[in-house]
Amino acid sequence: MMQTFASDPRVRLVDAFDPSEPARRQFEREFSVLCSEDVHSLCRNPDIDVVYIATPHQLHLEHAQLALASGKHVLVEKPMALDVAGCTAMIAAADAARRVLLVGHSHSFNTPVLEAHRRIASGRWGAVKMIQTFNYTDFLYRPRRPEELDAEQGGVIHSQAAHQIDIVRLFGGGLVDHVYAQAGAWDVKRGFNGVATQGAYMAQLRFESGAAAQLCYNGYAHFDSDTWMNDRSELGVSTIGRQFAQNRRRVLGLSSEQETRLKSFRAYGNSSAESAGTSLENKTHQHFGPLIISCEHAALRPTPLGLQIDSDEGCEFEPWPQPILPRKEVIDELYAAIVEGKPSLHQGRWARATVAVQTAILESSRLQTLIKPEFQVAV
């Protein structure tokens, strides 16, 4: 989100906190401000309107409550919290403070997804009947901190499923009636305290609208589904020549301490990380793997380059203009909610419903039965 914040004229960066001193110093150099020395002093800063929370999953609840109690609006990264109880506590804090609580970035903010949804909502192709989405990545073999490999708070279901769930809930109407799923934890080397974390899942969702969705995610660094997305990565850059096998071998040869240091080295504030002013040249729209929405009279496939429509009338392709900014759509929704007072999609109750589906995926896989998720809300 750094490049988006730095480049969008509706946003002014006035403060930051990071446990890494190099990150704080780089922020101060880039934006000519002084960083807070802890989270509490940041939340007390009277110049701040909105606090963006991009801390590890397990800290979202504490940090959101602190910011909201300080009278700040909050943009918190997905997943909103590790369980629905944490989400409910955050919603209560936002309601009590009368402040906006927005959750993202998830890939349901992406322009291709939102534009496909807008066209379907026109009714031209009838009701949505089936949604399929899948993503094959090297997620589990990227450098990770130990808690990211803890099945209770990390793995692909806590860290990645929100993207797919948000997308299919948007097209399916939001109200998931039941979930049936199977999760895979196949590599004990990628786990915590000898317990492998989830690296893959497949889930079937049924909506109250009657639509059905199939979600598949595999982070075991074998097939690369970006080859079916115009050879563009999740972030819209070229993936030609990328080799998952090299990443796997490199990470498996490291100790936990070495892996943590490698991840830190890639973070903001270090020489290998992108600055806020990184060029947009040759970037396309972002995506989260192949997605097909089947309506009564057409199938639509959003891509990084445009929208493929195969309908009763024939086939057409609508190209997208190059993105102005990555994740600009997040600021669109945040600005509309705070400044213009408009209702937002990705508010706390929507995100809690997504976390409830994540929980249902875990429970269904464990119990091998249908699970009805709690707290579902309509689009």
Number of strands: 13
Q: Name the overall outline.
A: globular
Distance between the termini: 25 Å
Overall pLDDT confidence: 95
Major sheet: size, sense and barrel closure? 8 strands, mixed
Strand numbers in spatial order across the main sheet: 5-8-9-4-10-11-12-13
Quick overview:
The chain is 33% helix and 18% strand. It is of the alpha+beta class.
Write structural notes for this entry:
By secondary structure, the chain is an alpha+beta fold. Helix content is 33%, strand content 18%. It has helices at residues 2-7, 21-31, 39-44, 60-69, 84-97, 111-121, 155-159, 161-172, 244-252, 256-265, 328-338, 348-367, and strands at residues 50-53, 73-76, 101-103, 128-136, 176-184, 191-192, 195-196, 200-207, 212-218, 291-295, 298-302, 306-311, 314-319. The strands form three sheets. It has an eight-stranded mixed sheet.
List the helices and strands and how they pair.
Blueprint: H1 2-7, H2 21-31, H3 39-44, E1 50-53, H4 60-69, E2 73-76, H5 84-97, E3 101-103, H6 111-121, E4 128-136, H7 155-159, H8 161-172, E5 176-184, E6 191-192, E7 195-196, E8 200-207, E9 212-218, H9 244-252, H10 256-265, E10 291-295, E11 298-302, E12 306-311, E13 314-319, H11 328-338, H12 348-367
Helix pairs in contact: 4-5, 5-12, 8-12
Question: Which features characterize this protein?
Answer:
single chain; 379 residues; alpha+beta; eight-stranded mixed sheet; three-stranded parallel sheet; 12 helices; 13 strands
